[in-house]
Amino acid sequence: MEVRIDSFLWAVRIFKSRSIASDACKKGRVTLNGQLVKPARSVVVGDVIGVRKAPITYTFKVLQTAKNRMGAKLVPDFIQNITPKEEYEVLELKKIAGFVDRSKGEGRPTKKERRSLDEWHGMNDSYALFDDDFFEWEED
């Protein structure tokens, strides 16, 4: 049985919706046996699908085809994840790198810091920020 690739990617839960899978194919993020594909391309047993989800490319081998979406427990019967370990290492490095460069005090303030900033700016006072006394207006 042949199935459209966008439908198959949705059925095996790689994408949340068929339209998202179709858009990924149109944007060149999906390959079938090493070649870029359009959403209507057919998938058969034995094909190798590559899906680019930044920063890595996942690789799957088709074991069976399916048209209907299935439960997560049934997915291993239909596809085999053959993504190289090097790709997962890149993903781990990306996760770690996000925290290494950030020094303390940068980024979003904590709740305590936000309260002290509001107090310092006078946000808790009873007057409005754009009060008439705040600006000196020139009148014509």
Order of SSEs, N→C? EHHEEEEEEHH
What shape does the CA trace take?
A: elongated
Largest sheet, if any? Answer: 5 strands, antiparallel
Q: Strand fraction band?
A: 15-25%
Mind explaining what this structure looks like?
With 140 residues, this protein is α+β, with helices and mostly antiparallel strands. The protein has a domain at 3-83: Structural Genomics Hypothetical 15.5 Kd Protein In mrcA-pckA Intergenic Region, Chain A (Roll), CATH 3.10.290.10. 31% of the residues lie in helices and 18% in strands. It contains 4 helices and 7 strands. The protein has helices spanning 5-11, 18-26, 85-100, 111-121, and strands spanning 3-4, 30-32, 35-36, 42-43, 48-53, 56-62, 79-81. Strands 3-2-5-6-7 form a 5-stranded antiparallel β-sheet. Strands 1-4 form a two-stranded antiparallel ribbon. A hairpin with a 2-residue loop joins strand 2 (30-32) and strand 3 (35-36). Helix 1 (5-11) packs across helix 2. The radius of gyration is 26 Å and the shape is elongated. The model has no long low-confidence stretch (mean pLDDT 84). Residues 3-60 form the RNA-binding S4 domain. Keywords: DNA-binding, RNA-binding, Stress response.
Chain-wise SSE layout:
Elements: E1 3-4, H1 5-11, H2 18-26, E2 30-32, E3 35-36, E4 42-43, E5 48-53, E6 56-62, E7 79-81, H3 85-100, H4 111-121
Antiparallel strand pairs: 1-4, 2-3, 2-5, 5-6, 6-7
Helix pairs in contact: 1-2
